[in-house]
Design goal:
Blueprint: E1 3-10, H1 14-29, E2 35-43, H2 47-57, E3 61-63, H3 66-71, E4 77-80, H4 87-96, E5 100-103, H5 111-124, E6 128-130, H6 138-148, E7 155-163, H7 184-187, H8 191-207, E8 210-218, E9 223-225, E10 232-234, E11 240-247, E12 252-258, E13 267-274, E14 277-282, E15 288-293, E16 310-314, H9 335-352, H10 360-379, E17 383-384
Parallel strand pairs: 1-2, 1-4, 2-3, 4-5, 5-6, 7-12
Antiparallel strand pairs: 7-13, 8-11, 8-17, 9-10, 11-12, 13-14, 14-15, 15-16
């Protein structure tokens, strides 16, 4: 028998749409779930705007104060879709109220804030997850499966990038509802927390903990007009970041993120090279996983030379991760489905008692790596990380 849980969402922007779609779709495509979301309320500061959002997505009510939303007895779960500087206060209050909590990434502005959130969550013992949705792109999940099947062997190199070009104009302002990601007071960092955090989460899920790193960042446009004050103000976020890392398993890694790569909108890639094989993924071609097999994990024999080569796997078959919930083989799914998968795994974890990752504690480790990147860039030397 399906049990309902009543959702309160805080925020209604880009992520609010992606999450709301997941809540609407999850039981249609994962009909065996024990829980079914009820869109009880959505909260934001501007009444007319949040009411319009509620009308489109079918939320039963609205609030303009997140504290009132959390106090409501008819709310079981809180979804945090607001700028990073608001995550800690909301999450701690929601945990103390005994609500389930789903939070957008990165977990917080700083490690100190993230640690306070983890402490509150674990003291309350409430279900929690952070929306690092790219783990659940089927091709990325298949990469994890192949690694767990020991098809890569000993890992040597991990390299990842996330490239965009949308902030290159010096006329673009910072701050406000739409451009808070360019305001250090709201975001905490620039491409490190917004883009590279995704790559770091994926990397540590696939290849294990990062133990030390050295980084360099750059802010190309030093001043921008602030939308809320109208004044020209210094830009405090990083526009670009490059990182060298060492993993606990002995492999090396490189990471690059930027919003100044002309022609790229969301070029998110990773490659893992091991003794027995390699993997490559490109978000722009997200229904495919590229795989090179050098040696079979079952026979331990080298692939015949005339058959060796990169294999482009079309990840749409029913035996591929998540795909048995969607269409027939050959028909693709997209970005929005990764949120449906995240929500489905979260609800499955509540039912089974085996929490779906990444939990707040998992995301705290990503936060530690992000903070180490910023520290390294500031001091100009290697930084050790204890995860």
């Amino acid at each position: 028998m399906t049990k309902s849980f009543r959702l309160g969402m805080i925020g209604y922007g880009f992520m609010g749409k992606a999450h709301s779609n997941a809540y609407r779709q999850v039981n249609r495509f994962f009909p065996d779930l024990a829980y079914q979301p009820v869109l009880q309320a959505v909260c934001a500061r501007t009444r007319d705007a949040v009411q319009a959002f509620a009308d489109v997505w079918g939320y039963d009510s609205i609030e303009t104060d997140w504290r009132r939303l959390i106090e409501r007895s008819d709310i079981d779960a809180i979804d945090i879709c607001v700028p990073n500087h608001l995550h800690q206060e909301i999450a701690v209050a929601a945990a103390e109220a005994g609500k389930w909590i789903l939070c957008e990434k990165p977990l917080a502005k700083t490690v100190a804030e993230a640690e306070a959130m983890v402490t509150a969550i674990e003291k309350a013992g409430v279900p929690n997850i952070v929306w690092y949705n790219y783990r659940r792109v089927p091709a990325v999940s298949l990469a994890k499966q192949l690694i767990d099947e020991d098809r890569i062997g000993r890992p040597f190199h991990y390299r990842a990038s996330f490239l965009q070009d949308w902030t290159m104009s010096p006329e673009l302002p910072q701050g406000g509802a739409a451009l808070w990601r360019l305001d250090a007071e709201a975001a905490g960092s620039g491409v490190t927390g917004d883009l590279l955090a995704h790559n770091i989460d994926t990397a540590m899920w696939l290849n294990g903990p990062i133990t030390r790193l050295v980084a360099s960042t750059e802010t190309f446009v030093k001043e921008r007009r602030h939308q809320e004050t109208g004044q020209l103000a210094p830009v405090g976020i990083d526009d670009a970041c490059m990182v060298l890392v060492r993993f606990a398993n002995g492999s090396m890694g490189t990471f690059e993120s930027t919003r100044y790569a002309r022609g790229h909108k969301a070029l998110k890639t990773f490659e893992l090279n091991g003794a027995d094989g390699s993997l490559f993924f490109d978000l722009h071609d997200d229904q495919y996983l590229h795989y090179f097999e050098y040696q079979s994990p079952t026979t331990h024999q080298k692939v015949e030379s005339h058959l060796a080569g990169w294999r482009k796997i079309h990840v749409t078959n029913g035996e591929h991760p998540y795909m048995n919930h969607w269409w027939v083989p050959g028909l693709t799914i997209g970005y929005e489905h990764s949120f449906v998968h995240t929500l489905a795994d979260f609800l499955t974890g509540i039912e089974s008692g085996n929490p779906a990752a990444p939990t707040f504690r998992d995301a705290l480790n990503t936060q530690r790596v992000c903070e180490a990147i910023l520290t390294s860039a500031e001091v100009g030397q290697w930084v050790d990380i204890r995860l």
